[in-house]
Amino acid sequence: MMDALLVDDSTTMRLRLRRLLEAQRGVSVTDHADTASALVEAQMRAFDLVLVVCRMPALDGIAFIRCMRTIPHYAQVPMVMITDDVSEAVRLAALEAGATDFLDRSMPGVELTVRLRNVIRLAKAVRRLAEQAAWLDGEVEAALRHMREREEEIIFRLALAVEYRDNDTGDHTWRVARYSQIVAEALGLPPEACRSLYLAAPLHDVGKVGIPDGVLLKPGRLDPDEFALIQTHAAIGQRILGGSASELIRLAAEIAASHHERWDGSGYPEGLAGPEIPLAARIVAVADVFDALTTSRPYKEAMSFEAALACLRADSGRHFDPACVEAFCARWPEIRAAGDRAPAPIRPVTEPWARVPILLREIAASPAPSDRRVHAPPVPAAREPGAPEPAGPRAKPRPAGAPDGAAGERAGPSGGRDTRTDGRRRPRLPRGPAARTDDAHPVGP
What we know:
about 450 residues, mainly alpha, Rossmann fold, 2 domains, five-stranded parallel β-sheet, 5 strands, elongated, disordered C terminus, Cyclic_di-GMP/3'3'-cGAMP_PDE, HD/PDEase_dom, Sig_transdc_resp-reg_receiver
């Protein structure tokens, strides 16, 4: 069914045109005697054809067509001017206003019928083209959405692969992403920018794939050479992600390269200071350090949320952008909610995590198969006198029914015991200095 709008102050001409239009199959006519009421209805309904008389008491036909063309739906809809003045001046004014064709009131019935039939065919063709264009727009949008979802999933899987080296699940990856998104929202960034930061933040430590386990997982302080090696992960991450055609990957490269820069210029790798540091990297720096402080690592125990927040405030203006710390504090309830809740294996389909499983280390309880063992770095102080270096698993699976620890906590030297292959318990390792956190305050000897 095609809807036509007819506007004419002459009752006789309005009835005549209505009969001619409705004689065509599939045409429904709505008529008005004045342009003001017709314009109101045109804004509420989507007509496929508009016919208007040139001379009207209030708003004339030319002004009416000009107003109609400003409504998005009527940009291409055929509009016919009905007139008894066929002068060139009137025709030119009507065409400039957006008229498609003209109908003369004195036109013979046969000719008028044929002209109306042609206009109706044109209106139907325009409608089909509009419907096809809308369908194509929908298909393109669906394809782009699918492509973005695949890109997002690849990013999160790559981030999980990096984190799998020193963390049993993807909790840290998700929390840093969520914290960063919350801070970005508090800073008033556009929704699209907040979403992009949420997706790019998980790759901030992708450069750690180039750091040996003996340094990355060392329980204790790093010596100067080891700390220098740790620092190279920022440049490695930038090289891995840099030069991409994807705007999202380029943002991730910017974050990977600069998230260890400090507001006072004492960070690495470039020693950038203040606004020289990209805003995305300044935001992720706050999120990354907070999560590093509040989770267990092989070289330290977890800090309480309140104590970690106090550390951020103390380093505001030195390590961190004061505006980012202020935004972080302003959204504290949301930060706590994100930190207290580990991401579920299944999330809403709009989230990349819906397609990314939680990665658990493939280690049997005891004894561990020889091809599944993960050797811990030598720690002479923790060994029994005369005992060989143990080759037990780095992380022991949590027994059934055991209470959960902090989100993202991994058993190891600072939390839980390893088991020897002969079944005897290995003594608890001495705790390394709590001052060492690679993401917060890395130190030398």
